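Lay summary

Proteins are chains of building blocks that fold into shapes. Our project writes down both the chain and a compact code for its shape. Here are two examples, one after the other.
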Amino acid sequence: MGFKYNIIGLFALLVFLTGCGGGDSFRINGTVEGMTTQNLNVIYYGDGSFRSTRTAALDGKFMFEGKSRDLTPVYIFTNSRMLLGIIIIKNGETVNAKFEMGKVGGTFMEGNKQSEQYSKWLRDNAEVIASSDSKGVNEAVKEFIYNNGNSFVSTVLMMNYYRPGDDEESQELLRMIDAKARPTYIAEGFLDRLTSLNDSTFNELPDTIRLFDTKDTLRVIATHGQEMVLYSPNVTQRDKKIDDNLKKFFEGDTTKKRQTVFIEIDRGIADTAQWKRGVRSDSLPWDRMWHPVTGGMLFPGKKTVVIVADTSGRIIYRGEDISPAVKELSKERK
């Protein structure tokens, strides 16, 4: 009788271990509602280096295994480079994640405390994240940090959702996060490096992008069917030379005849009222828009970025100035 129960127990243990990430790896089981079959881009920092790879999502279901001795945020992007989700995980853990295309509130995760905490925060704050209320998002981040300074989730929220407007407040929040929950590799250049890796596989705009205009109207903009120029200035300091080059391009005859869609997407908006006043005083000739999530997804980091896409949505240029982009457009039009 005892032998029989020992065999059953051993079988149950084997089943349990098969479903979990091994001690030297982690595992993510994902389901995405509303997603067709496609390759996903997976980027994370593990054991001393950044890792970038792909995994197939078949009818919205995917499985990914990676390696990181310490907790790390694993970024999963669609094949059009839009951020699908972030899973916080380390070796020996398995996280089951459920996402819903275009809906932050449809994120559910189970398997470890950090991912569960993070997905609950997303659901609890889905409405304010999707709104134009960056102050509200900042308040939600601050509240979490005040109550969970020893959680790695605090670092992930600070890095991906907090919009700095007050350097003193930013430093105070960082000091409130326990050193063990704030790894040394997550520093100034982390998101820029992440962006660079993701850019290497990003060659097409998503079919639509959602942005707020200066009247707080949420606009859904189709990216196919016309040439597009998307410009996002340096978060810290605008470059007047780049603005001047953009004006020349925008006002050129070729642009008018082609009816190129030209949109500036501002990032790091902490005060929408102040941003609107700045837009009015700048008097720049193109549309100015922003979104607390979309801006960060298209343009993570702080550097100036110009994206040019042809009528099919294919990216033909991505860089820090418009001059090389004009040359690429000229080649494309011949």
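And here is the second example, written the same way.
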Amino acid sequence: MRNIFLILIVLCIFIFGMSFVSAKEDAHFEIDKDQSGYSAIITLKDSSNNPIPIVKFSISITKPNGAVRTLPTKTLNNTGQNIFFLGTTNGNYVITVNFKGNDKYNPCSLTKTITVTAGGRSNSPYNYYDNHNYGDSLRMDEYIYDNYWDEEIYDDPRTYDGEWY
């Protein structure tokens, strides 16, 4: 009887100890408006508030007119954040992000409203690229690469500077 009791205690200690080893860490999103006023910066952080890089997440953006833009699954960059152009129309944009979790982090999601009040298109990705600023901002460069690589932003004949690559 004594041996069975001892075996049960050792087994309980082992199971209890393993639960801490295999426990996943909590994660949370932060959504902020960038300095241009047209974009949102999405960051995924761990429980110590450190950015979590290179993980997949989903995002949808509801525009002021109610239209919903659901993007294909995205991957956070090496800094653990991405920037998403909201629009140039003044109003409230509702951003919903969802991380399904992985072997290290628990799932999380966040919905936040960002108000665009900048007016005009002066700081849009199109003007950023058209004014030959590519390379000045890593966040904006990655945003353009992630979201406009297949669009005419690179092929605008008004801003063609002789480079074809």
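What can we say about the second shape? Confidence is low (pLDDT under 50) at residues 150-165.
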